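Input record, target 12 of the design panel.
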């Protein structure tokens, strides 16, 4: 059986879908079979980020309602035989997709793939409740902004209450100079506030915007600083790379809250 990981955030606009697509591509390029599940019903983005929007025939909801097989709904990445997308429904009532549907989808995909990455809509409303039903672990995306950190703290608490015990953090859109000057919250401070270990720090890299607009993935660019970090994150997820950015564990959540 494979492993299902929900990639989520408390706040929108932190780069969650971009991280999902790039981590998936990096895992696939390492030789792992990967299925990306777009859990953002009604506002799907993964297909555009991956340049697959014109190849969608069926959706996750079609598969859940047994209108097609899951295999028929999967769209293969243009550059990798190991990477597939299960697109979200965009036009029908999003409430038709239930947590039970998502649990069945992820369980079925784990029988065929090493990793199932669920791109969860931001927040803790119905979209989150549906997406988390199929998850074994979680990665929370935040940026070094007070509002994003506060919302990340909220989503971490909700994940814990939902029984997701393995939660890791990605700090995205980092500007090193601002951190060094004290104008941006440091990665160490964010980890200590949230009480969750990071699996990677992604720099604010304009190459990500350029590649996304072209339907390409920066994880495959050796000129992109963010792409390099996405590849390291994939290696840490698999256990192939054991280093942590600061080389030490963070404070336990209970200690922070006390």
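The sequence produced for target 12 reads:
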């Amino acid at each position: 059986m494979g492993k299902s990981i929900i990639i989520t955030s408390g706040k929108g606009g932190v780069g969650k879908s971009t991280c999902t697509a790039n981590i998936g591509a990096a895992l696939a390029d390492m030789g792992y079979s990967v299925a990306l599940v777009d859990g953002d019903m009604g506002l799907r983005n993964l297909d555009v980020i991956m340049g697959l929007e014109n190849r969608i025939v069926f959706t996750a909801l079609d598969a859940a309602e047994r209108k097609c097989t899951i295999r028929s709904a999967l769209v293969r990445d243009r550059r990798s035989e190991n990477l597939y997308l299960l697109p979200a429904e965009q036009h029908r009532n999003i409430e038709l997709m239930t947590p039970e549907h998502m649990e069945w989808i992820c369980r079925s995909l784990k029988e065929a793939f090493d990793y199932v990455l669920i791109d969860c809509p931001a927040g803790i409303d119905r979209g989150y409740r549906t997406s988390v039903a199929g998850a074994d672990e979680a990665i929370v995306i935040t940026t070094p902004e007070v509002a994003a950190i506060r919302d990340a703290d909220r989503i971490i608490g909700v994940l814990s209450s939902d029984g997701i015990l393995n939660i890791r953090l990605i700090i995205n859109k980092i500007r090193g100079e601002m951190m060094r000057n004290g104008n941006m919250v440091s990665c160490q401070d964010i980890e200590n506030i949230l009480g969750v270990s990071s699996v990677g720090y992604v720099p604010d890299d304009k190459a990500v915007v350029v590649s996304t607009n072209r339907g390409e993935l920066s994880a495959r660019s050796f000129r992109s600083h963010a792409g390099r970090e996405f590849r390291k994150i994939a290696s840490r997820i698999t256990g192939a790379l054991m280093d942590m950015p600061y080389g030490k564990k963070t404070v336990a959540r209970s200690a922070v809250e006390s």
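The CA atoms of residues 49 and 204 lie 17 Å apart.
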